[in-house]
Specification:
The chain has 232 residues and is an alpha/beta fold. Helix content is 34%, strand content 27%. It has 8 helices and 10 strands. The strands form 2 sheets. The chain has a 6-stranded mixed beta sheet. It has a 4-stranded antiparallel beta sheet with strand order 2-1-4-5, with no helix packed on it. The chain is globular and about 45 Å long.
């Protein structure tokens, strides 16, 4: 299989001196879905922010064959779509359609083409009836879908979702899991929700104190670290 993400020896220290990553190695294959697990502060989100250059540490990060450098950032960021934990940080336009089309317009696409592609992305996430609605009137699950549509409209090869089940009730979590399973992109899901991880991913990587402590199937990692799939 083809690796769409290759990371070797990644280290990162925050300005206050906190060592967040301590030599992380990681690979993601095309079409693969991987859950990043571990306690808060273990380095998961810091790691993810390196994949499209929002943070720059020591070591090698390669995305879709391109080493992540300042020169390659525009191309890399078109390959990696980030969906943040709080959808309200990504939804700020007056209507759903405007929100989903926003990134396309910034890339120079005409308004007509951007709106057409935005509508296709809304259909992809089951929100085709919502283009004229105000994002702040949506439910948490609907907001998550619209935020994801805005990323999908940019046609990334890799999706990174940070705590995607935050604010979602159980039906919303199940609906999101089904949606993600049907998307062809490679995915990295940062989550504490083990049932959701098992529903969406075959593989899990466990972070501890800035290092990859374990890498295996979701069931193996859960058993190794004492998770109960009934826990929420």
């Amino acid at each position: 299989m083809t690796s769409v993400v290759e990371v070797r020896g990644l280290r990162y220290r925050y300005p206050d001196g906190t060592e967040a990553l301590r030599g992380v190695d990681f690979d993601l294959q095309a079409g693969e879905s991987v859950a990043l697990l571990g306690a808060n502060g273990s380095g998961k989100s810091t790691f993810a922010l390196h994949l499209n250059g929002l943070l720059e540490g020591e070591g090698m990060v390669r995305v879709c064959g391109m080493e992540v450098t300042r020169a390659t950032l525009p191309a890399v960021r078109r390959k990696v779509g980030l969906v943040f934990q709080d959808s309200d940080t990504q939804l700020f336009m007056p209507t759903v359609l405007e929100d989903v089309a926003f990134g396309l317009l910034n890339l120079g696409m005409t308004s007509e083409k951007a709106n057409q592609r935005a509508q296709v992305s809304l259909e992809q996430v089951g929100m085709s009836a919502a283009p004229g609605r105000a994002p702040h009137h949506l439910s948490a699950g609907e907001k998550k879908r619209v935020a994801l549509a805005g990323i999908l409209a940019l046609e990334p090869e890799i999706l990174v979702l940070d705590e995607p089940t935050t604010f979602l009730d159980p039906p919303g979590q199940r609906a999101l899991a089904e949606l993600l399973r049907n998307l062809p992109q490679a995915k990295i899901l940062i989550t504490h929700d083990m049932p959701f991880a098992r529903a969406t991913c075959s593989r899990a990587v466990f972070f501890r104190e800035g290092c990859v402590a374990s890498d295996g199937t979701v069931n193996d990692i859960a058993g190794r670290f004492g998770w109960d799939f009934s826990d929420r």
